[in-house]
Amino acid sequence: MTEYNTLTLEKAEGIATLTINRPKMLNALSQEVLEEVSVALDEVEKDGAIRVLIVTGSGTKAFVAGADIKEMKEKNAVEGTIFSSLGNAVFSKLEQLRQPTIAAVNGFALGGGCELALACDIRIGAENAKFGQPEVGLGIIPGFGGTQRLPRLVGTGKAKELIYTGANVAAAEAYRIGLLNKVVAVEDLLEETKAMAEKIIKNSPLGVEGSKKSINQGMQMSIQQGLALESEVFGALFATEDQKEGMTAFVEKRNAQFENK
Ligand code: HXC
């Protein structure tokens, strides 16, 4: 198993939990963190026993308070582009991970932290969650996907307001605008996130993976191309044992036992 300096990766009962672990810096994303997240994602992708990935930050104060400003401060234009491209590549890998992903947002999710949550499939927030894209206050723009994923999730007008003002959004408002799927008590965050993961795990892995692929790829296409993709993924599942088992179990009035094949 790989050793990590800046994160932990725990695996139990089909769920992997990736925790960014730099609590003294509010889990700020340095280049090393991004590189280790990339390696951890490869490890999760290849692990057939893992059905859901949870992404969170250590401690209760911050999920991730952004890219590491102290490390970024001295960069020149070329280095800035390289750093943004690295983050975009890693977060795209997260977005396209075979397994579904849930961000468990504990406290501040600012800048790159908000962008990390945006690259996950689902976001559950503790009552102390705070989202924001404060980059314009630092003389930069969001550089790990915020200008692209935030408007796609909450709409262009709201995204522009959040990015131009740099204002923080508390959990209840984040829920109202669709940035959070659910808000829970601080002490229940991981338990509630795992409960959602367990609901997903009860379903056919191939069905869940196929749904993710169809949604993600379809969002990049015209609706007609997306519908054609949906029919293709739908049809391919009829060649699987899981489809036979799922429908036979329904007819026989019992729970399905999916085998991921
Ligand atoms: C480096 C950070 C940091 C960050 C916090 N720290 N955020 N270090 N990069 N993004 C460090 C602080 O310097 C401090 O360490 C320690 O963490 C605790 O933070 P405090 O500021 O003392 O805590 P508090 O007063 O409670 O304020 C919490 C906070 C604030 C509101 C979250 O830390 C804050 O505004 N952080 C920066 C948020 C931000 O601007 N994020 C966007 C970054 S740009 P020391 O040792 O100094 O006491 C970005 C771009 C992404 O993400 C794209 C790049 C291509």
UniProtKB/TrEMBL annotation:
One of its GO terms (molecular function) is hydro-lyase activity. Keywords: Lyase. The keyword Transcription does not apply. It comes from the Bacteria. The keyword Lyase applies. It holds the Pfam family ECH_1. InterPro entries: ClpP/crotonase-like_dom_sf (IPR029045), Enoyl-CoA_hyd/isom_CS (IPR018376), Enoyl-CoA_hydra/iso (IPR001753), Enoyl-CoA_hydra_C (IPR014748). GO terms for biological process: fatty acid beta-oxidation. Belongs to the enoyl-CoA hydratase/isomerase family. This is Enoyl-CoA hydratase.
